[in-house]
Design goal:
Number of strands: 2
Order of helices and strands: HHHHHEHHHHEHHHH
Strand order of the largest sheet: 1-2
Largest sheet: 2 strands, antiparallel
Distance between the termini: 61 Å
Number of helices: 13
Structural class: mainly alpha
Length: about 375
């Protein structure tokens, strides 16, 4: 089976699972509160995996992810309110209307965040060291100040009236696409260049890697995916507030990837789920909730400073087994072909000998 066909089968299976889960969750078979936590976990996964691309795999230090998230959230919300909703109505509403509207809003938000990432990344990533951290921190604060003073998106009052789309399918579709994009990047020549930059940037430059180009491209992709996460958040509750994108939000996403393990996709997923579910699980402890939450994080970071998974990739073993299986099958096929060829050669040689023998006998009888 070709790689394209195999990937197509995987995509169909994933879409089928997401459709089935979306149907179950919409049917009130499960508590709406649990469904809400699941959806928030899906948004957190998108944000954590996207940040791990630049912080974990590329070795750069960005602490302004919430800024790109805000750009995606507000630009998509403005589009949905002023253009998306009328477009959905013109298409008759229903499934087709909201799908087209939300799809375009996601594209607008991701593109706006990518442009912001390019503007921030080009000057700051030419430098080495912690300059990116300083620039992204300033960028995040600037975005919050700008939003507070732009009345067309509500200013400090917040932006309301955003079309609400609480779709498990859409949220986890974006999360799965984010995971797939990062996974394929890391397992490509592009990804190997990023990892070489993380391990030793000077050595990577000496080997001919255009480090600035690769860092900027990774940063733009990471920013675009953060913008997509912002789109999901904007349409989840139908309301945005500038305070939701202050530095503490960037810090929360950073904790997710450090807790899960820098350089681990599965670790980012686990960290995102854990830091989304844990505060809710501790809600019954009232005023002690945040104390217990903080203590648990401190204990985890002391006992596992490299994160829950470090930079381990649980898929490596599966990929190695798949490669070994493919190699074994290829060797078996080659061996069978070799045997067939040898048998054919032997038969041909035997036939020639028998022919020569019969000719010799014929000459002797004459």
């Amino acid at each position: 089976m070709s790689r394209t066909a195999r990937n197509l089968i995987y995509a169909v299976i994933v879409l089928g699972i997401l459709f089935a889960l979306d149907f179950v969750f919409k049917g009130n078979m499960i508590s709406p509160y649990f469904v809400r936590i699941m959806m928030l976990s899906g948004i957190a996964i998108t944000l954590a995996v996207s940040l791990n691309l630049i912080n974990g795999f590329t070795g750069q230090f960005s602490i302004g992810h919430a800024g790109f998230m805000a750009v995606g959230a507000y630009s998509s919300a403005y589009f949905s309110v002023n253009y998306g909703a009328p477009l959905a109505e013109s298409l008759g509403g229903g499934m087709l209307g909201w799908l087209v509207s939300l799809g375009l809003a996601t594209l607008v938000g991701a593109l706006a965040a990518a442009i912001a990432g390019l503007v921030v990344g080009v000057p700051s990533l030419r430098l080495k060291g912690d300059y990116l951290a300083i620039v992204t921190l300033g960028f995040g604060q600037i975005i919050v100040v700008l939003i507070n003073n732009i009345e067309s998106v509500g200013g400090a009052r917040g932006y309301s009236g955003i079309p609400i789309v609480k779709s498990f399918f859409w949220i986890f579709l974006i999360a799965v696409v984010t995971i797939a994009v990062v996974y394929n990047i890391i397992n490509s020549a592009f990804g190997r260049a990023l990892i070489s930059i993380r391990e030793d940037e000077l050595a990577a430059e000496a080997m001919g890697v255009n480090t600035t180009r690769y860092k900027v491209l990774a940063f733009v992709i990471s920013s675009a995916m953060a913008g997509a996460g912002g789109v999901l958040l904007a349409h989840f509750d139908g309301y945005l507030n500038p305070k939701s994108f202050e530095f503490i939000r960037s810090f929360e996403i950073l904790i997710m990837i450090i807790l899960g393990g820098l350089g681990s996709i599965v670790g980012s997923i686990l960290g995102a789920i854990l830091l989304t579910v844990l505060p809710e699980a501790l809600r019954g402890f009232a005023e002690y909730r945040m104390v217990i939450y903080s203590l648990l994080l401190i204990v985890l970071m002391i006992t596992r400073p490299q994160g829950l998974l470090g930079n381990a990739d649980p898929f490596k073993g599966w990929r190695a087994r798949r490669r070994n299986k493919t190699r074994t099958e290829a060797e078996e096929i080659t061996a069978e072909d070799t045997r067939d060829i040898n048998e054919g050669v032997n038969k041909a040689t035997l036939g020639e000998r028998q022919s020569d023998t019969s000719l010799g006998k014929g000459d002797g009888s004459k």
